[in-house]
């Protein structure tokens, strides 16, 4: 075993030195000595798909390039002999010795380790990146890594996989959205191909609304966020779709327990234009129809998502990508009310390299989110429609001042229109007995300019610093209520209203957001990093539930809703052990959040014309320590992450009736101090592996009644303070077995995944609630979303 | 087999709700006020109780507050004293007391120990008349088709006035029905010395009248925000069919009341709490603030609400012929008078053929 490890270690990390290979001569020899431009392209040997984000290192000159979205890279070298070393997650490392004599092109292929090797490499495209880069709290996950995790309901899931990492959590088992380092679910900017997506979930969070087969990789920034991103307080999740192969047609398909998917990709014009389409849909409806339980039989749950990616190369330095995305959901649980939502985005991206030093990345997008509630109960039928449109433009330039010294700069702008809600009465027997109602549309524009400089002083010190200037405008047309001064914002205190014309500025906000991080390496395997980050957020998700719910309302900042401002300080120590087989880190952070919104007791959010009367501004603070150990290599791989963190809120206002919990700090809905995740993957044989995930976290806070009282012969609970108690702790074990059947046909190439979620059937409470229900005394109940062991089986095939 | 498999793999039945014991702090014994006065003739009842630990062994047991001095004062300076009736903690207005539209009322309480409390003034608003009450059958599926539930949903028809903001509160008043029994099917008890279970038809009585006990009370509320000025037909009550109620005629009295915005908010929170399911979309529990304050200690919490409302009453007779979903009728093989509370005399004003 030890020898095998050593052997693999040698293959991976000391390539070239042991295996002499035939030398390749690149370029036509015209006697050029310096600045020889060599471009290359890296593709998957089997599928022909470009490999994005692989590192290409020229050891001799200590130069590393990363392949772009088409698998291309560029090198400028002097005339000499070199050895290229190409590393990519889940692929065998490749070395390529060559002699550069003139300008030319290299074509390289890599083979997935998948089931060819006895060992698995997880995460990290570059084994020492965690130590060497100045990034803090940036997590890059490739889809190959994701496939090693136990699936949730038959599929690997982007959002859920992130929740296994330190500092990232979810409210409960069926909740969409992430809580990153004590931030709310609205404080994450989720970008798909550069376009913001407002509700990236299917079935209220049971699935993430992104098809993993069309995703190349995703990056989560939870600590120091590059200045090119702005607009949200806690994190940025940037998901890059995968473009199709320029070489040959192929595809992926999967059939699972509740959903299936298919994607196809290939060249439209060989070596010039490629296309990729993906479709995923559920067949829960069909299953529901077969149920005996009447509530289930009359229920409806349907979702699907469609992706299309068109990629064209103008030449080797310039390319354009068009990406289309649409997700759809409708849901009705034994009722006449159907809830439906759609995310839609179009993105056009241009990437160009003008010289060895200057490159550009331009993204134009249009994103739309629609949410509708249909009531067809026969009594006052209505449709309630709401939505967001968000078109925007981003410009990013990178200029290399030297090998380890580069500047990025650019700007972005977007205009957001929110339709908070429109009630359209339905026809109930010809007469309409309810009034149509429309909450005023909101118009805002967010713009930003930024500069970022990354440089290294020798091996020891690396610095990255930058600043972003955010501007925000809130426009008419709008009629705004005016409230009596020195009184709470209550409907009763309205003294007048003011009408703003179309395009008239109602309110502006702006601010400078400095960000910096510093890395000091103690040696090649150990470094210390420190950073500071400031973010502004001009949009708020107003919610009075613990998770993203149909009643939530997105609201732009206006004169009552000040932007959320988040300051974060972080410090970390990173150490790799045993030749990068183990990665370890400890990070601590402190966050200060201004203008978080807390709902007032009994707030009414749907169709609320004056949301300022339903919420109160509060302060937030979050702090924590995150421990992380990962084993990258070997028959057993995996990681352990443990976070101790707190996320607290405080509401102090001049008005006594608005103060929450006597103005003391109290835990936020998603405050879970202890959070532990253990993930292990063990290779049983060349065609089978088993993986396990165990997670434990402190139960989330809930309010318990202080007393019981009787009113109108109902037993009621009296709640005085918020979030003083906790629901029982959460723990769950998931197992999965991945295997291939023996045989030689195409069918046998497919991967089978058999998984059991919640192996020991723990009834993890999603909530504890108090009810006086007919037939039993007033008492407390728990709702467990996943109360039994739940098996799934799926089959996927790459062709 | 396939179906069995589906059961195993299907996603939805995996969630469950079950009772769960939590350790709750010892509850405070807070004064709770529950009652309303209306423009109808009295007596109107104000109940004073004390709160207790949630889920305590005393659950269901109301702790009445006795021997208090309870007074209603109106905005014209009139004072009405309430007297504690036979039921402890229930204070009644004189029978001739009626609240008047446009007048504000305040409830004043002095407890035996001398602590005094007041409500915020509640102004009585006019209420539109109930024009008509209609009903239709509704059914609810359950796990077992034979146990599917059903009942009658009652709708109030009225014209919402357009020149004012209205908050509505509906309660069900007295409920009576014809209890149909089959005395001719009577059999002797199994312990009868000579003729156990022998047929012994009784001559009387097949038809009785009975009043439904007013236990667990559901109510309905609405605000005219969404329908100001429009004629309305709203569901205001539901009577569950138990196989006996709808054999001949069932009479329900519906009270349509106009309440204040604050009272509506209070009831909305009550309604919200009584309809919690623990689901991911539940609103978090809200502090249900009432309109009572302590005059001695501003920090003392007083629960409940004192309401003053305009009222419009109407009765509806529910008849089996108009219900298209009904439970299998139950048979009482005995004299109907053996059922507790049953009488041979119809209740006052009984006129089902009207």
List the helices and strands and how they pair.
The complex is a heterodimer of chains A (799) and B (354).
Chain A (H helix, E strand, L loop, with lengths): L1 H12 L10 E3 L9 E9 L10 E4 L4 E4 L5 E6 L2 E8 L6 E7 L3 E7 L18 H4 L5 E5 H4 L11 H5 L5 E2 L9 E2 L7 E5 L2 E2 L4 E2 L4 E2 L6 E7 L13 E7 L8 E6 L3 E11 L3 E10 L1 H6 L4 H4 L2 E16 L2 E15 L4 E17 L4 E18 L6 E21 L2 E21 L11 E2 L3 E16 L3 E15 L2 E6 L10 E7 L4 E19 L2 E12 L1 E4 L10 E4 L7 E14 L4 E18 L15 E17 L4 E15 L15 E2 L6 E12 L2 E10 L3 E2 L4 E5 L2 E5 L6 E2 L3 E10 L11 E7 L7 E7 L7 E6 L5 E9 L1
Chain B lengths: L1 H8 L6 E4 L11 E8 L6 E6 L12 E2 L4 E6 L4 E6 L5 E3 L11 E7 L5 E4 L2 E2 L8 E9 L8 E11 L7 E14 L26 E5 L8 E4 L7 E10 L9 E9 L2 H14 L17 E3 L8 E16 L36
Parallel strand pairs in B: 2-19
Antiparallel strand pairs in B: 2-3, 3-4, 3-7, 5-6, 5-8, 6-7, 8-9, 8-10, 9-18, 11-12, 12-16, 13-14, 13-15, 13-17, 17-19
Mean pLDDT of chain A: 84
- Secondary structure class of chain A reads mainly beta
Radius of gyration of chain A: 27 Å
Strand content of chain B: 35-45%
Structural class call of chain B reads mainly beta
General description of the model:
The complex is a heterodimer of chains A (799) and B (354). Helices cover 4% and strands 55% of the residues of chain A. Chain A is built from six helices and 51 strands. In chain A, the strands form eleven sheets. Chain A has a 22-stranded antiparallel β-barrel. In chain A, strands 1-7-6-3-4 form a five-stranded mixed β-sheet, with no helix packed on it. In chain A, 46% of the residues are buried. The model of chain A is unreliable at 1-21 and 114-125 (pLDDT under 50). Chain B has two helices and 19 strands. Chain B has helices at 2-9, 261-274; strands at 16-19, 31-38, 45-50, 63-64, 69-74, 79-84, 90-92, 104-110, 116-119, 122-123, 132-140, 149-159, 167-180, 207-211, 220-223, 231-240, 250-258, 292-294, 303-318. Chain B has a 15-stranded mixed β-sheet that branches. In chain B, strands 11-12-16 form a three-stranded antiparallel β-sheet, with no helix packed on it. The longest helix of chain B is centred in the C-terminal third of the chain and has 14 residues, at 261-274. The N and C termini of chain B lie far apart (57 Å). The relative contact order of chain B is 0.19. The chains are: A mainly beta (799), B mainly beta (354). Chains A and B meet through helix 5, helix 6, strand 44, strand 45 and strand 49 of A and helix 1, strand 1, strand 16, helix 2 and strand 19 of B.
């Amino acid at each position: 075993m030890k020898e095998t490890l050593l052997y693999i270690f040698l293959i991976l990390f000391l390539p070239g030195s042991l295996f002499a290979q035939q030398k390749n001569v690149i370029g036509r020899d015209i006697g050029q000595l310096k600045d020889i431009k060599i471009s290359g392209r890296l593709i998957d040997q089997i599928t022909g798909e470009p490999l994005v984000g692989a590192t290409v290192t020229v050891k001799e000159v200590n130069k590393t390039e990363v392949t772009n979205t088409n698998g291309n890279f560029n090198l400028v070298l002097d005339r000499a002999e070199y050895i290229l070393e190409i590393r990519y997650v889940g692929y065998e490392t490749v070395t390529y010795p060559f002699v550069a004599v003139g300008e030319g092109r290299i074509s390289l292929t890599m083979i997935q380790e998948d089931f060819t090797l006895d060992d698995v490499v997880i995460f990290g495209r570059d084994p020492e990146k965690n130590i060497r880069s100045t990034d803090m709290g940036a997590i890059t996950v490739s889809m190959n890594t994701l496939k090693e995790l136990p699936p949730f309901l038959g599929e690997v899931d982007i959002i859920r996989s992130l929740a296994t990492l330190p500092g990232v959590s979810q409210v409960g088992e069926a909740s969409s959205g992430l809580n990153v380092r004590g931030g709310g679910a609205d404080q994450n900017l989720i970008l798909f191909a550069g376009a913001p997506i407002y509700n990236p979930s299917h079935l209220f969070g049971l699935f993430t609304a992104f098809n993993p087969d069309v995703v190349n990789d995703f990056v989560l920034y939870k600590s120091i966020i590059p200045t090119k991103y702005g607009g949200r307080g806690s994190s940025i999740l940037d998901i890059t779709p995968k473009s199709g192969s320029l070489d040959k047609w192929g595809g992926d398909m999967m059939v699972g327990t509740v959903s299936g998917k298919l994607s196809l990709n290939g060249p439209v014009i060989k070596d010039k234009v490629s296309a990729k389409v993906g479709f995923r849909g559920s067949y829960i409806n069909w299953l529901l129809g077969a149920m005996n339980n009447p509530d289930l039989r009359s229920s409806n749950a349907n979702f699907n998502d469609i992706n299309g990616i068109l990629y064209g190369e103008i030449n080797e330095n310039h390319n354009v990508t068009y990406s289309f995305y649409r997700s759809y959901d409708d849901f009705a649980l034994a009722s006449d009310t159907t809830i439906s939502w759609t995310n839609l985005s179009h993105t056009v991206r241009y990437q160009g390299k003008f010289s060895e030093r200057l490159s550009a990345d331009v993204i134009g997008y249009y994103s739309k989110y629609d949410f509708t509630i249909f009531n067809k109960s026969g009594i006052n039928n209505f449709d309630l429609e709401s939505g967001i449109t968000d078109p925007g433009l981003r410009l990013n330039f990178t200029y290399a001042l030297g090998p380890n010294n580069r500047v990025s700069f650019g700007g972005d702008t977007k205009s957001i229109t929110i339709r908070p809600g429109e009630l359209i009465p339905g026809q109930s027997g010809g007469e309409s007995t309810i009034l149509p109602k429309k909450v005023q549309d909101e118009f805002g524009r967010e713009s930003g300019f930024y500069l970022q400089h990354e440089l290294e002083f020798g091996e020891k010190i690396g610095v990255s610093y930058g600043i972003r200037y955010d501007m925000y405008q809130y426009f008419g047309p709008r009629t705004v209520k005016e409230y009596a001064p020195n009184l709470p914002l209550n409907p009763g205190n309205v003294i007048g209203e003011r009408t703003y014309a179309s395009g008239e500025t109602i309110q502006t906000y702006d601010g400078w957001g400095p960000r910096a991080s510093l890395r000091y390496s103690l040696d090649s395997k150990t470094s210390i990093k420190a950073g500071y980050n400031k973010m502004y957020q001009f949009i708020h998700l107003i919610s009075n539930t613990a998770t993203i719910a149909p009643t939530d309302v997105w609201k732009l900042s206006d004169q009552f809703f000040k932007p959320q401002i988040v300051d974060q300080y972080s410090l970390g120590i990173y150490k790799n052990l045993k030749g990068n087989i183990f990665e370890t880190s400890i990070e601590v952070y402190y966050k200060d959040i201004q203008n978080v919104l807390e709902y007032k007791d009994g707030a009414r959010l749907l169709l609320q014309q004056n949301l300022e009367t339903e919420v109160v501004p509060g302060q937030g603070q979050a702090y924590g320590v995150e421990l992380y150990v990962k084993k990258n290599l070997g028959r057993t791989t995996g990681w352990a992450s443990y976070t101790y963190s707190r996320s607290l809120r405080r509401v102090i206002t001049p008005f006594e009736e608005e103060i929450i919990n006597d103005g003391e700090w109290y835990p936020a809905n998603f405050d879970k101090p202890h959070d532990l995740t253990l993930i292990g993957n063990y290779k049983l044989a060349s065609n089978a592996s088993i993986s396990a995930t165990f997670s434990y976290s402190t139960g989330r806070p809930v309010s318990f009644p202080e007393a019981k009282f009787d009113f109108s012969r109902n037993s009621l609970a009296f709640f005085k303070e918020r979030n003083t108690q906790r629901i029982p702790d959460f723990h769950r074990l998931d197992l999965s077995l991945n295997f291939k059947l023996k045989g030689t046909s195409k069918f046998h190439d497919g991967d089978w995944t058999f998984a059991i979620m919640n192996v020991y059937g723990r009834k993890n409470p999603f909530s504890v609630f108090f009810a006086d229900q007919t037939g039993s005394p007033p008492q407390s109940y728990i709702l467990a979303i996943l109360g039994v062991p739940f098996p799934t089986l799926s089959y996927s095939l790459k062709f | 087999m396939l179906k069995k498999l589906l059961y195993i793999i299907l996603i939805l039945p995996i969630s469950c709700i079950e009772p769960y014991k939590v350790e709750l702090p010892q509850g405070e014994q807070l004064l709770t006020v529950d009652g309303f006065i209306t423009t109808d003739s009295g007596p109107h009842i104000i109940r004073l109780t004390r709160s207790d630990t949630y889920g305590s062994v005393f659950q269901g047991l109301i702790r009445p507050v006795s021997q208090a001095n309870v007074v209603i004062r109106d905005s014209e300076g009139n004072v009405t004293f309430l007297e504690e009736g036979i039921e402890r903690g229930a204070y009644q207005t004189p029978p001739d007391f009626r609240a008047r539209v446009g007048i504000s009322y305040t409830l004043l309480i002095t407890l035996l120990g001398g602590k005094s409390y007041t409500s915020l003034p509640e102004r009585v608003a006019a209420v539109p008349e109930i024009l008509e009450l209609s009903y239709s059958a509704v059914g609810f599926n359950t796990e077992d088709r034979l146990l599917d539930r059903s009942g009658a949903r009652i709708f109030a028809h009225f014209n919402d006035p357009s020149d004012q903001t209205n908050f509505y509160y509906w309660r069900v008043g007295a409920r009576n029905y014809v209890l149909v029994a089959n005395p001719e099917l009577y059999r002797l008890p199994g312990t009868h010395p000579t003729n156990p279970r022998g047929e012994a038809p009784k001559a009387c009585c097949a038809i009785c009248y009975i009043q439904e006990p007013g236990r667990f009370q559901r109510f309905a509320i609405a605000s005219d925000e969404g329908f100001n000025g429009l004629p309305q037909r709203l569901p205001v009550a539901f009577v569950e069919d138990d196989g006996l109620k709808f054999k001949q005629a069932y009479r329900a009295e519906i009270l349509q009341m106009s309440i204040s915005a604050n009272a509506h908010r209070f009831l909305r929170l009550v309604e919200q709490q009584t309809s919690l399911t623990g689901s991911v979309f539940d609103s978090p529990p809200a502090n249900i603030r009432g309109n009572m304050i302590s005059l001695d200690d501003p920090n003392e919490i007083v629960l409940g609400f004192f309401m003053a409302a305009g009222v419009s009453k109407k009765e509806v007779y529910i008849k089996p012929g108009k219900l298209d979903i009904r439970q299998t009728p139950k048979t009482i093989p005995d004299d109907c008078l053996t059922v507790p509370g049953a009488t041979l005399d119809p209740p006052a004003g009984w006129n089902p053929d009207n």
